[in-house]
Design goal:
Elements: E1 12-17, E2 20-25, H1 30-33, E3 56-59, E4 66-67, E5 78-80, H2 84-100, H3 109-116, E6 163-165, H4 175-180, E7 190-193, E8 200-203, H5 219-223, E9 229-231, H6 232-240, E10 248-254, E11 263-269, E12 272-277, H7 291-295, H8 297-300
Parallel strand pairs: 1-5
Antiparallel strand pairs: 1-2, 3-4, 3-5, 6-9, 7-8, 10-11, 11-12
Helix pairs in contact: 2-3
This protein binds iron/sulfur cluster (2 copies) and FE2/S2 (inorganic) cluster (FES).
């Protein structure tokens, strides 16, 4: 008889969350103990980047707030998720992001802003949109005018039929870079260019996507938390005012393009596939696909046909 290898048993760790006792396997994060915590740069298929700090909580005895997404629980830890210090920090993160980027398609942002009382407008009206962010060089920052909030607004990059990069929605969480690079795709088509406020996600030499190393796997779209990266179909429907997630059904099926058999989740609105994602808990693909699984749905229904 073939035995099924079992993982070694994990010790359990006792902590408290807002005074309630919680028991978790050793190695769990604070986020595992507090699953409702807001997150942006955290991805369940990626190594935590600790970039956004919206997930911070207070831990008794710790000098600073700690990121729930990456900090592991320790025996006896007393975690506080709703102190004034936590609320103030989350409010500030939302205000800084909301004053400089477009969070209108970020799931959760509107609710969190209301919950924490974020008022991005107190930084002033949005400053002039920059049209030349790709041309900026490290150190060549524009001086703020002191009256308006600095912004990363810029035209969306629509340079191919499959996906759109709308970097005025980008919060620089680096998840797309990690998914394209060493953590999943190993294509390294995109990276971080510039420094400070002019830091931005870019292809090599800011080349249009069709001239870059991109293989159109769309694994960057899968992890983007703000909608800065989106299917062209979604981008067009949002522009037309027809995108409506409340009218969309999701059906998970198996890709038939090759023998690997990746899971595809088809998002269907009005009997049309409008985008494709992939379950993150699939032990083989972890939410990743290739161009055929991700974008091949356009062969099922030619969107340009009348
Ligand atoms: S589609 Fe794939 S290859 Fe292209 S930038 Fe995104 S992750 Fe990289
Ligand atoms: S494009 Fe999306 S995933 Fe990439 S850094 Fe910006 S917000 Fe993050
Ligand atoms: S979600 Fe934890 S630091 Fe961004």
């Amino acid at each position: 008889m073939t035995g099924v290898p079992l993982a070694p048993p994990r010790r359990l760790v006792d902590v408290t969350v807002d005074g309630e006792a919680v028991r978790l396997p050793e190695g769990s994060t604070i986020l595992d103990a507090c699953p409702g915590t807001p997150t942006l740069c955290y991805g369940d298929t990626l190594t935590p980047k600790n970039a956004c700090r919206i997930c911070v909580v207070e831990v008794k005895g710790a000098r600073t707030l700690v990121p729930a997404c990456s900090r592991r629980v320790e025996p006896g830890m007393e975690i506080m998720t709703d102190t004034e210090r936590v609320r103030h920090s989350r409010r500030l993160v939302l205000e800084l992001l909301g004053s400089s980027t477009d969070l209108s398609t970020t799931p959760g942002a509107a609710e969190w802003s209301e919950e924490y009382g974020a008022r991005p407008e107190r930084f002033g009206p949005p400053g002039d949109a920059s049209t030349d962010r790709d041309a900026r060089h490290p150190g060549a920052h524009e001086s703020p005018d002191g009256a308006s909030a600095a912004t990363v607004a810029q035209p969306a990059k629509v340079d191919n039929d499959l996906y759109v990069r709308d970097y005025e929605k980008c919060i620089l969480c680096y998840k797309c870079v990690d998914a394209c690079g060493e953590q999943w795709q190993n294509t390294f088509a995109i990276g971080v260019a510039g420094r400070g406020f002019d830091a931005r996600i870019s292809t090599e030499h800011a080349a249009p996507l069709p001239d870059s190393a991109c293989v159109y796997c769309g694994n960057c779209i899968e992890v983007c938390p703000t909608g800065a990266l989106s299917f062209k179909s979604e981008y067009d429907m949002r522009a037309e005012g027809t995108w409506d997630e409340s009218r969309q059904d999701q059906t998970t099926t198996i890709c038939t393009y090759c023998g690997v058999g990746c899971n595809l989740t088809l998002h269907v609105q009005d009997n049309e596939i409008v985008k494709v994602s992939s379950p993150h808990d699939n032990p083989v693909t972890h939410g990743n696909l290739c161009v055929k699984g991700r974008f091949g749905f356009q062969h099922v229904q030619n969107r340009t046909r009348g």
